[in-house]
Each structure stands twice: as structure tokens, then as C-alpha cells.
Design brief:
With 261 residues, the protein is an alpha/beta fold. The protein has nine helices and eleven strands. A hairpin with a 3-residue loop joins β1 and β2.
């Protein structure tokens, strides 16, 4: 089962009892707020030319619809619909909880001088500290030709298999590349899903090698909806969200009985 399908299956019972209060599809991020409380965000992949001026043809108005209908969009091949689905999933799960670990993601993983690090998505604030600590850093992004340590995203599947640490953007769930990336990183010592799009739902990652989920919890729903509407990104979010980490136990990653595997 794909990661997207696992998220939908796990959260569907919870989503069936919830309704959508508000949705914003911004230039940088998409945000969903639920009537029962809870707000989540996910990166907006800008539409391609084949879209008409209405981005989601068959889902208007969105406010007032059942959350389960929006959640199901996570499996859509359309990136706008998938972003809506992931933001809805995050609204369902990204709540304050005692299991969350505070702080920066690099404080939660050990990077040594012999480690090769592969980063899917260019998280610029992390790049400098990783370069200082690791043997090498390779960043995979949507570029046509290599640009120094930044390589085309198409190379990630082959190169991650040679890394000890893999940092994978949560937006790979939206464009449905997450499954092949996790397969490539199956032998890595640490596999981290990170970014504001990351669903803090460890059971959705089955028997993958994911060791840490590093995302955000929205603490100011009004502020985050305004920031998204204005085209804001993580810099605009900083007063409205809290960065958190959620570790997956070794047993969770290797249990043959995990139903999401």
C-alpha cells in the first residue's frame, strides 16, 4: 500500500466525523481548517498549463464539505487536489501532544564525519550545518542539470541507496514520489521526513526505514490562514506554528505485524 493510501485509510474514520470550515490555496502553501478544530498545511504545487482558471472543478464550495471527501483527494494525481488532501490530513493529526520532541531536526539525528547525506528538497537552513558535520551532502531538486551539490530529482532514487542519512521532504507525498524514495533509502541508518507538509502519523509509514517525522503543529489558525492567503511560506509561519519531531521506534519500523506495511 502506498504512503498516501495508508494515510487516507488510517484517518478516514476520524475524517468521517469532521467537516471543513475553511480552505486557502495560496501561492506557497495550502491550508485547511476543520470545524471541530485543527488546522494543517501542505505545499502548493503550482498548476500546469492544462488547468483552467478554476483549480478544483468538482469541489466547490469546499467549506462545509465533509473532511473525508477532502482527505480522499490525497490519492489524486492532480497536485492541487493532493495538497488539499495532505493539508486535511495534517489538520486531523497535527495537534499538541506529549510525544512530540521540540527543537531542530538536526538535534535529533547524529551526523558524523563518515556520513553521506542525501537531501530531497533544498532545505537551505540545514545545508550549512550538514556540510560541516558530514562527509558529503547531495541535494536533489527540480533542476534540469546539476548545479554543484544540487542534482536533478531524477537521480535521487539511485544515489540515496549510497547514503547513510536521507532527509526527504514531506511534499514527496503530494507528487507521489515518496514510495520510491523510501524504497531507495531502505538501508539508510536515519530516514527523516521533514517540512511543514509532513504528516505526524508514524503508523502510516509501515515497515519503511523512516526513523523521524519532523513537521509543524499549527498553534494560531487565524494567523496561518492569513499567512497562506498572502502567499507566505515558513518565514511567515514562524509566529503561528511550532516545529516538532516525532520519533519512530525501531520495533515500529521492523515489525512484521504492522498493518500498513
Amino acid at each position: 500500500m502506498s504512503i498516501a493510501s495508508s494515510i487516507v485509510e488510517i484517518l478516514s474514520p476520524q475524517a468521517a466525523g469532521a467537516s471543513v470550515a475553511d480552505v486557502r490555496i495560496g501561492l506557497g502553501y495550502t491550508a485547511v481548517s476543520l470545524s471541530e478544530g485543527g488546522t494543517g498545511v501542505a505545499l502548493t504545487f503550482l498548476p500546469r498549463d492544462e488547468h483552467c482558471c478554476t483549480l478544483v472543478e468538482d469541489l466547490h464550495p469546499i467549506a462545509g464539505t465533509e473532511a473525508i471527501d477532502l482527505l480522499a483527494r490525497l490519492s489524486s494525481p492532480d497536485p492541487i487536489e493532493a495538497a488539499l488532501g495532505l493539508a486535511c490530513a495534517n489538520a486531523l493529526v497535527n495537534r499538541p501532544g506529549s510525544d512530540y520532541l521540540p527543537g531542530d531536526v538536526l538535534e535529533r539525528i547524529g551526523i558524523g564525519p563518515e556520513d553521506n547525506v542525501g537531501m530531497v528538497g533544498n532545505f537551505k537552513p540545514l545545508a550549512g550545518p550538514i556540510r560541516q558535520a558530514a562527509a558529503s551532502l547531495t541535494i536533489f531538486e527540480r533542476v534540469a542539470i546539476p548545479q554543484g551539490e544540487i542534482r536533478p530529482a531524477s537521480e535521487a532514487r539511485k544515489r540515496l541507496s549510497t547514503c547513510q542519512i536521507a532527509l526527504i521532504t514531506g511534499t514527496s507525498i503530494i507528487n507521489h514520489t515518496i514510495d520510491e524514495l523510501l524504497d531507495a533509502a531502505r538501508d539508510c541508518r536515519e530516514v527523516v521526513i521533514l517540512g511543514a507538509s509532513t504528516p505526524l502519523l508514524p503508523e502510516a509509514f509501515g515497515q519503511t526505514a523512516v526513523s523521524l517525522l519532523s513537521g509543524v503543529v499549527v498553534e494560531d489558525a487565524v494567523g496561518i490562514m492569513q499567512a497562506v492567503s498572502a502567499g507566505g511560506g515558513m518565514r511567515a509561519f514562524k509566529h503561528h506554528v511550532r516545529k516538532v519531531n516525532l520519533q519512530r521506534r525501531y520495533a515500529d519500523r521492523h515489525s512484521d505485524s504492522n498493518p500498513s506495511g
